[in-house]
Amino acid sequence: MAANPEADSQKPVHWSKQKEETSGYWHLKFLLGLFKIFPVVILRVIAFPVGFFYFLFSARGRNESGRFLRRVARFADDPAAAKKYLSHFGPLKHIISFSLALIEKLQSWGGKFSLSGIYSHDDTSEIVKDLENGKGVFLIASHLGNMELLRALANDKLTGLTRIVPVTAIYDINVSENFSRMLKELNPDSVMEIIGANKIGPDTAVLLEEKIASGGMVTMTGDRTSANSLGKNIMIPFLGDDAPFPSGPFYMAALLNAPVYFIFALRRKDLSIKPEYDMHIHKINISLEDGGTRKERIKYSNDLARTFAALLEKHCIEKPFQWYNFYDFWSEGV
After folding, report:
1. Cβ-based neighbours of 246, under 8 Å, separated by 6 or more
2. DSSP class of residue 115?
3. Would you report the helix, strand and coil content of the chain in percent, each value rounded to 5?
4. pLDDT attached to residue 140
């Protein structure tokens, strides 16, 4: 049977292989240049026309935003909110929110985000207690909100910790090699170490075990799959349909056998010149004693993934304009 070129062209493309415009890296590089020139308040104003430009020229960004907002609208309790999601201006608001988030990421990496604008909730006292007692912790974040604010957890001014907590972040983007250099350029005193997801190998778990044993904080994201392990994804109900979640972060949590927390840092107002964030920290009480057998670790990691997906869904419904996965999230398992 002859191949169908049209069908092939419509096959879902893994997020990591899409154009840079979708990942927003050009967006970030442009804002980084401005970050070096202008005060942050000016950058926040500039983020609005930059987001509008991105909205105009990124058809994929507009389409994927609209697809996601239509899906979330089905779950909105408030008809007025659902109407906003379904509006033609919904994707514009979504993309401008993304522009503002990139400014705040740069502030976070540069150590210039005002910690007075961060309000912690849920199990914050638990993670502070673990860190203060010298325990290492494993955090799983997402691309909802601003995961870079996790650095605030390691800050003694916000949490009252009596020690500096080193952070090891595993990034799941193609440009991670540039991020370490960017981070050092923005903040030479940063205690964050970045490891590219494409660099993960058999020795990574040993390295991360050492980080945890020394009382550090290790973080990964749990809402983007790897192009190299599509067959190992976990299909989980999410916003109405099964969606693929990566098994790697959750299995790593099982291997490290450290206290596990899920973190969601959400802007109180989607579009705000003076941002305030609610940081939701959820301690996971699913236990795995003595490392467990491989079968037990798989079950443990699957349970973690489902718990994470349920919390992510809850927060997505609350703050859909802060979801920054601009691709067809539900097609990644194809």
Report:
1. 222, 223, 224, 225, 226, 229, 232, 233, 234
2. G
3. 55, 15, 30
4. 92
What residues contact 140, with CB distance under 8 A and at least 6 apart? Answer: 219, 220, 221, 222, 249, 250, 253, 260, 261, 262, 263, 304, 308
Whether 280 contacts 315, CB under 8 Å:
yes
Q: Whole-angstrom Cα distance, residue 190 to residue 158? A: 16
Express each pLDDT in 194-235 by its tens digit. 666 666 667 777 888 888 888 888 888 898 887 666 567 889
pLDDT by residue (tens digit) across 53-89? 888 888 888 899 999 999 999 999 889 989 999 998 9
Compute the residue count for the chain. Answer: 334
- Judge contact between 22 and 60, C-beta under 8 A: yes
Name the pairing type of β-strands 167-171 and 241-245. unpaired
88 burial (CB, 10 Å; 0-12 / 13-18 / 19+) is exposed
Radius of gyration for the chain, computed over Cα atoms and rounded to the nearest angstrom: 20
- pLDDT tens across 108-163, in order? 776 666 667 788 787 888 888 888 888 888 999 999 998 877 666 665 555 667 77
Contact yes or no for 109/180 (Cβ under 8 A): no
Pairing of the two strands 260-267 and 277-283: antiparallel
Domain 14-331 grouped into CATH 3.40.1130:
yes
Residues 266, 120 contacting (CB under 8 angstroms): no
